[in-house]
Amino acid sequence: MLTQSSYGKERIRLVQVLRRPDRDDVRDLTVAVRFDGDYDASYTDGDNTDVLPTDTMRNTVYALAAQEAVRDIESFGLRLARHFLERNRCLTRVTIDLAEHHWDRIAHGGREHGHAFLRHGAETRTAAVSADRDASTVSAGAADLMILKAAESAFAGFRRDEYTTLAETRDRLLVTSLTATWQYRDHAIAFDPTWHHVRQTMLDAFAGHRSESVQHPLHAMGQAVLDAVDGVASISLVMPNRHHLPFDLSRFGLENRNEIFVATEEPHGLIAATLTR
Amino acid sequence: MLTQSSYGKERIRLVQVLRRPDRDDVRDLTVAVRFDGDYDASYTDGDNTDVLPTDTMRNTVYALAAQEAVRDIESFGLRLARHFLERNRCLTRVTIDLAEHHWDRIAHGGREHGHAFLRHGAETRTAAVSADRDASTVSAGAADLMILKAAESAFAGFRRDEYTTLAETRDRLLVTSLTATWQYRDHAIAFDPTWHHVRQTMLDAFAGHRSESVQHPLHAMGQAVLDAVDGVASISLVMPNRHHLPFDLSRFGLENRNEIFVATEEPHGLIAATLTR
Amino acid sequence: MLTQSSYGKERIRLVQVLRRPDRDDVRDLTVAVRFDGDYDASYTDGDNTDVLPTDTMRNTVYALAAQEAVRDIESFGLRLARHFLERNRCLTRVTIDLAEHHWDRIAHGGREHGHAFLRHGAETRTAAVSADRDASTVSAGAADLMILKAAESAFAGFRRDEYTTLAETRDRLLVTSLTATWQYRDHAIAFDPTWHHVRQTMLDAFAGHRSESVQHPLHAMGQAVLDAVDGVASISLVMPNRHHLPFDLSRFGLENRNEIFVATEEPHGLIAATLTR
Amino acid sequence: MLTQSSYGKERIRLVQVLRRPDRDDVRDLTVAVRFDGDYDASYTDGDNTDVLPTDTMRNTVYALAAQEAVRDIESFGLRLARHFLERNRCLTRVTIDLAEHHWDRIAHGGREHGHAFLRHGAETRTAAVSADRDASTVSAGAADLMILKAAESAFAGFRRDEYTTLAETRDRLLVTSLTATWQYRDHAIAFDPTWHHVRQTMLDAFAGHRSESVQHPLHAMGQAVLDAVDGVASISLVMPNRHHLPFDLSRFGLENRNEIFVATEEPHGLIAATLTR
């Protein structure tokens, strides 16, 4: 009757400073831990014998970072997953979700300061590790990259029915907040440079593409990643269409030469796809 | 290579006033529409021939509400699903997500006013309809019910390892923001009274339960719904543990008689389960 | 050169359970403390000699609640203000901002449960105490009451210029999120019943008013409070106009009988005024 | 009895694309307009004769941008203020608040792309123009710069009372979200380069400072701006102390060499000051 269950801890906020004589590094992470396993007795009978407290999951994140500095979030996720599987016999699958918030160095006296930082925007680097006793999978991602095309974006030739009022356009403003997640073939991968390679490949494909819709550049971006980055087995992209509508200036005897737009929050389109090698 | 895709519209905000001589009713909805189907050409070739614009999805929500007033969100979702399937041959599965924000009447001169309303809190009523050409499923839900137990809530007897520091307690403050979703067996159900029955059953079970954890009342609440409401085939509950920590007053020579708590936002536990008949 | 300065603590989250044999009460508060005074040396020289840590401000909120239970937020604010003024000779003015989040009892077996609660919506009750060594002022308020009028709301006869496109209407949907703050003449007032009296008077005036704009009911609501509640010296109301726009159904050959609206978030109007006795 | 009133429009979202043959520029603004003046009759009598609709304020923002491209937000604010004062005889003071969200060019094939952009973080550039028929003031600002010092930040030697438990430290992690606003002496200023000069001066002072508190670098940053930038008459800085607390590893027999921190959201300190020439 209890057909699925899981429990864990969300939003564990860890900041680690890696101290060197003249330059510190900062790792700013948000971590979530989820346990799936044979914990039915805690639900049905209130028997907590095998339940590791979620407070312990949180402590473990800090303790493991203290014992070996976080290098990349993918490796740290794998280390956490292994730790929990080894110590919890009822645990059948553990999932670790990680997000990293990047900090840039502040320019000071013509060069980068060693200890002062400026947070780099809303964009986050993400990773997810899912592991059972036989295997583990690693995925990486980039969340909330706001990107915009001011030219070479169209939407025309679409289906119309009795409720269609949208005008066709060969030249619209395309704005989206890209979230992408990709699966790695194996763990013998250089996670850091690969992440940057995938991110830059997506941005490059977006910039250089002549887009007939949101679907069209989304596919081109995914395709470009599979072509360029060997270690990626599949990639999922989600691109909300943050509509920027031309403002109707004709009511004031003015012309809108595709320059004046109303940025809107809702409603928004939502386009998603997965490409697999 | 394109192994999954979908597109649609999110956050369509519809308010419908049902006008009667002396009393209006207000329906305040947020609707999302998602299409899954044979739309690969739009991704791979920028061919939009079969792509119904998401702007049309939005228009359709308003147009269908105008032609027949929204009674309950479940029926409205079914109507929208049917409409889209009939008109779009490439569409294989349509999903309609709906949330309703309730408005109470303002008391005025000793009775409820006919035209003036006060929004009823953060809690929302939800529904989801998923349909293909053969069948459709309807689920309903309640989101963001903040509930609290000031007594009869414990957490003890749990597993300890080297990173466990949590103290056992027979008497803690339990605060959660319940989100529940349940599947109906069929559509021949009185959606409105059933929704209220499920919601009250969950609250009742929560209030009357002696809880050994978060898992324990979660299961009791799901069990109570399956016992009491025949039309429900299965129910999923998600209960984040919004930790309220006793404030350490001993440092000031004061005693905390389980009365003074620090409410925290993060990190939080997250407990989830599905019960099926 | 340092012409103004202040420091303090924001978002101190205190939950107090008032325990009685068969019925608990819950006080759920967010408190902020601000110090203005002779703290220039901490800014200019890094001299912290007279700086009470903001961490101590936080501790004090919990410690004072522990020593005497919070009854109403106005009295608790006065108590905190007095405490800080007595102990900090550099402090010239202290400001305490308080917000209370109300919890309703859950109905259980035909009556209200003694220990189980359901959070009452997004609306909060607020208070602000500002005190120096000679005097203190107390204000109270209600924040984020979402209210709606489905009839008896117009906007017509307004000024037009070359950029005015808005149509006149005798019958529009008026939706606002009321935030009101009122000053009390003195502290010899029953804070709890007075707060409920002011809130109900505003809702009553809103419901019963024939509105020509947002300004118009705002004034009527303020006027009603000054007329009905003797202890109030002045009242400020802020009413954003959360525009609900009629959806244009004529494009589909349908009529909008003032029933189908698009709820929007931005842009929004913002109307504010203060009425003084 | 109506002792203060204002009305206006908030969150007007304007995106302007400045098109050139091979490189577009993007201006992404959020604008608010507020009118103070002789509008009492609209409040007391529902007489809208002199009330310019807030919808017209919104239209005007788009129309004026269309007639002369937005260069910097300060000039655009001045232009809007002048426009409204000229056309509205009841208007005594108009306030224009502007926020700009910056977009960076996407790197493509080794150089910056002409039409594709990536949103630059959460930081915004702000401006405020306040004008009556005799004079106008212009202020500029930077909001939500998250900055961090990993070294050279202390908090010690502070006042203690019976509720003080905070430990002294010579070496803590200092994290704040800086919001600064500065007044210009006059309008004959190069707004763009001055804004960048002020921002860089603040970051530079923050990075190079040995901090004894949050107050201490705040003052140093304001002082540095007044010293370096002649056109600034005064500057206000607000710096919340986003506490990053050392995690207690000693419970696991581990040492925290000032490397492992818990990032917290609430409660937080709030430090503010204004420096005037």
Explained architecture:
- The structure is a homotetramer of 277-residue chains.
- By secondary structure, chain A is an alpha+beta fold.
- Chain A folds into 2 domains: 7-134, Urate Oxidase; 143-276, Urate Oxidase, CATH 3.10.270.
- Chain A has 5 helices and 12 strands.
- Chain A has an 8-stranded antiparallel β-sheet, with helices on one face. In chain A, strands 4-5 form a two-stranded antiparallel ribbon.
- In chain A, strand 6 (124-131) and strand 7 form a beta hairpin.
- In chain A, helix 2 packs across helix 3 (73-87) and helix 4 (191-208) packs across helix 5 (215-228).
- The first copy, chain A, is globular and about 75 Å long.
- In chain A, 51% of the residues are buried.
- The interface between A and B is large, with 75 and 74 residues.
- Strand 12 of chain A pairs antiparallel with strand 1 of chain B.
